[in-house]
Amino acid sequence: MRLGAFEINEPVPELNSPHALAILRPWIDVGDVGSLTMSGLESHFKAVELARLARPGNFFDFTRYRPTLYLENDRREVWVPNTTITYARSENGPDFLFLRLLEPHMLGEDYIESVLAVLQRFGVKRYLLLGSMYDMVPYTRPLLVSGMVSNLRLQNELETAMVAPSEYSGPTTIAYLISQKAPEMDIETGSLIVHLPQYLTLENDYRGKARLMDILSSLYGFPLAQEDTDQAREQEDWVRKAAEHIMQQEPRYRAILEHLEAAYDARVKKQREETPLSPELEQLLQDLSKRFGQK
Questions:
Q1: Is the pTM of this model over 0.90?
Q2: Percent of the chain's residues with pLDDT above 70
Q3: Neighbours of 268 (CB within 10 A)
Q4: In whole numbers, what is the pLDDT of the chain averaged over residues?
Q5: What does the pLDDT look like over 252-266, one tens digit per residue?
Q6: Element of type H or E holding 44
Q7: How far is 91 from 111, CA to CA, in rounded Å?
Q8: Beta-strand (E) ranges in 201-293?
Q9: Quick one: pLDDT at residue 283?
Q10: What pLDDT shows up at residue 295?
């Protein structure tokens, strides 16, 4: 079945108020954090392919996203880069759509409209963009996660998970139009972007994956995989040893680290001071106050 630019696999499933979790390559997937997180989610929920672009060449420049040759049953096959969508059912909550988006080089508006058409067709209630970026943050602190939201309810959920409001402004991707236009379809939108130290880059950053999975597990109530925790801890130990070795050779870097730590701590303190209580917590405190006042 065709839906916009997508070919939908049949039979078409009926989903229960699904939430769409998306990643975007290559714009906000440094350290492959978004890709690693998406693979973990699809594996945990046993996701099944739902759709892919019928003609990806309408949107992508294949001299920039290179097709790949591979062997299958002694035959050469060509893998063509594409945007894919999988789905999964959840026993205790909303079902899921998982979107692996590639940033379009051409016909960006048509691309966005097709993604929105899929979200609308399957009755998506929430769209969350997951990813990572490099930032001047200290490696000695928990990885900072920031995000933007479209309504107060989602803002309260993310603040409870210690997600900071995004302060970014500047060049962006056309794919952010999904987040801008989806609320017009009664779809709440948000983003979860983990900030990685730009001076200690890793090809596969399992620390970032573990940080995002921790937040998502608190939002959706699924258990964290022990493998994610172990990989993140091993990588954290390696980063600390590598950084300490560098600072022993160049003591002036320690002063820079202290400056980054101070800036990080100030930002976290400001966020905690400015975070308003949710209506539910405000009501709870009012009820407690009344009870104590009666005694």
A1: no
A2: 92
A3: 15
A4: 91
A5: 888 889 999 999 998
A6: helix 33-45
A7: 32
A8: none
A9: 57
A10: 44
List for the chain the helix, strand, coil content (%; round to 5): 45, 25, 35
Distance, in Å, from the CA atom of 288 to the CA atom of 164, rounded to the nearest integer, reads 29
Contacts with 255 (C-beta within 8 Å, 6 or more apart), sequence order: none
For 106-163, give the DSSP string. Answer: S-HHHHHHHHHHHHHHTT--EEEEEEEEEES--TTSPPPEEE-BSSHHHHHHHHHTTP
- Cα→Cα distances 67→25, 63, 141, 221, Å: 15, 8, 39, 38
Asked if residue 159 has pLDDT above 90, the reply is: no
Q: pLDDT tens across 278-289, in order?
A: 555 455 545 544
Distance (Å, rounded) from C-alpha 30 to C-alpha 94? 29
Positive/negative CA dihedral, 7, 22, 180, 60 = negative
Q: CB within 8 A of 121, min separation 6: which ones?
A: 3
Beta bridge partners of residue 241, listed in sequence order: none
CA 26 – CA 28 distance, rounded (Å): 6
Distance CA 295, CA 289 (A): 10
pLDDT at site 292: 45
**Superfamily covering domain 2-294:** PAC-like subunit (3.40.50.10900)
Mind listing the pLDDT tens digit for each residue in 46-61? 999 999 999 999 999 9
Among candidate residues 192, 119, 188, the one with its CA nearest the CA of residue 154: 188
